[in-house]
Predict the 3D structure of the following.
Amino acid sequence: MKNEMTQTPLLQIDALEKRFALDHGFLETVKLRKGRIRREKREVHAVNGLTLDIKRGEALCIVGESGCGKSTVARLVAGLLNPSNGSITYDGKRIDTLTRREMLPYRRKMQMIFQNPYASLNPRMTIEQALTEPVKHHHPDLSAQGVRDKVVEVMRSVGVDPAWAPRYPHEFSGGQRQRIAIARALTVDPEFIIADEPISALDVSIQAQVLNLMLEAQVERGLTYLFITHDLSVVQHFGTRVAVLYLGTLCELSDTATLFANPKHPYTRALLSAVPKLDDQAPNHIRLRGEIPTPIDMPQGCPFRSRCTYANDRCAVERPVPAPQPDGSLVACHAVEEDRIETV
Amino acid sequence: MSLLSVQGLTVKFAMRNNTVTALNDISFDIGQGERVGIVGESGAGKSITGFSILNLLSRPGYIAGGSIMFDGQDLTKLSDKQFRTIRGNRIAMIFQDPMVTLNPVLTIGQQMVEQLQAHRRVSRKDAEIIAVAKLREVYIPAPEERLKQYPHELSGGMRQRIVIAIALLLDPQLIIADEPTTALDVTIQADIMELLLELCESNNVSLILITHDLGVVSQMTQRMLVMYAGRIIETGGTREIINDPQHPYTQGLINALPQQTLPGEKLRQIPGNMPALSAIPPGCPFHPRCGYAVPTCRTVRPELRRHGGSDVACIEVERLHGTTPHKVDYA
Ligand SMILES: Nc1ncnc2c1ncn2[C@@H]1O[C@H](COP(=O)(O)OP(=O)(O)O)[C@@H](O)[C@H]1O
Ligand SMILES: Nc1ncnc2c1ncn2[C@@H]1O[C@H](COP(=O)(O)OP(=O)(O)O)[C@@H](O)[C@H]1O
Ligand code: SF4
Ligand SMILES: [Mg+2]
Ligand SMILES: [Mg+2]
């Protein structure tokens, strides 16, 4: 394990950008401005120059407010979207430029789990059919009995009674469905799992069941995770490292323990302080001013400055870049660099 | 005397083939200015409890028994017309989705004025002045401008603040907030919870806060109810319950939180799922998932009784303290 960690990262995201066109038809792009007709193309800047490695065997968590680009990163990595700029390298091979055909072997190695398990389970297929299909596809030499055995084994491993194999997804509870979706992802022996808010729709007791399953799979199969969530207590539990995103840019990247013990970026601090804790007697959080800006007109300078209490003139014009800190974390903030923030 | 006293509330749903019981003999009191949390897994009956108080149960649901005394009147006996003087006026409700409250085709100003004029004799002009004052109370920037805007022009957090302003418009005595921040980001949630707490405290308003987040309950409430399969299984002081939960289910809920286990270790999950209303087992409804269950738990329905700092519905509660649960096998 130690050895593997020092090898090249499993996934390298470099200067990744994704913009979505906001107006689709030609007419929508025609605008009347100051009495003159102009053609404007507005874009959503969902991901803005993200650079990030994921090491083998680790669980890298991405956190941040809704709309900050987490799902877009996941879909870019999974090859479901094409980047506007930058590159994605998997196991030393650049994958963002591959054709669908060339991408196929990577589709098996990388599996995606969504918040809504219906996104990965066909409602008209029984659980058995849903699990049999990928097993057959990826183990074409298995006998019919071998396939059945594998399906039973997979169902057992996620704690779902194999006797329920002939049932349809709607007959299962949300937690069971998500465990089945995970089982389906695991049937093809992937190396890398991209999980986009896999437990956000589940109750606490059920979240624990699903998280345990994902932890077990990580240990037993040496899986690597890109884990997206907005629940920081889950990150603290599950993550090896954490990337904090704001408006599609990286604020802070750090070991999980370091991040929670010593958050540095003003946004990370506000985010951590906002999590209600069991022993809190009253809300006590760092209040941010203003509203979350939309990623349509990306602000100049620091993306966080409109809500930041430490913002100064430099923050208004110069975009901070992630800079290494003495404890190994990366932080993109002028105030941190200028030592204007008191340490906790 | 308490402001709200719910006694033996039972709610049923008449389904095609059978009738299921969604709330079973629920009783609790809330004093003026008191804040009470209701927690439990989805489907436990939290929302139905709030809906029953406000007479918002829709068909096939009906109140099959019990009383809901609010400031001396039994709400279960009021006509729809009489209820109009209560709902939105003396008892306000905040839902998870602000668009349940807000009308998409009316401006914020029109809705607030309409709401005021439905219950008070005020001129349009005065209503607008009150509306602006309420928006200011919930820290909406440029409130005069907001009156002219439509809900879709505002962010989710801003909309929920406006819903709170509307809830406060008629100076209610009780607010029922059903997962008011579940759809919002944590930084926005924190702002809204702080605001709600401040407003309840400064106006001596009572609050029923329905949530699945024990951290939020801890911050916001003085007492809490834990619901499971349509029943209250534990109730008492929030601090007491969070520090020393008595019911195995409450313990399970708290222990399952990731922060209760060292990073990377296996979480203490509760096995199985909460039963559907049509399949609630006899005896203790929690027994199939409970690590302390003994054979009697399968047959005897436990009543709430005092133990530790709370009232608990568990026949094994005395034995349970100081023992460790056995492993539950659950498919
Ligand atoms: N297909 C799309 N077309 C246009 N805008 C999109 C599309 N997908 C995402 N966006 C926008 O990109 C931004 C980031 O979205 P997303 O990655 O879903 O954020 P998150 O998962 O962090 O909530 C948002 O502003 C969102 O509205
Ligand atoms: N209109 C309805 N018809 C039948 N059952 C219902 C209806 N509304 C709610 N229920 C059931 O009542 C139970 C309690 O629901 P609810 O109070 O919404 O739970 P929660 O604790 O998640 O708020 C659930 O099992 C739900 O399925
Ligand atoms: S760079 Fe400036 S505006 Fe951005 S987070 Fe740091 S202090 Fe705030
Ligand atoms: Mg998302
Ligand atoms: Mg509910």
Q: What stands out?
A: The mean pLDDT of chain A is 89. Residues 265-344 of chain A form one domain. The longest strand of chain A covers residues 43-54. Chain A is about 30% helix and 20% strand.
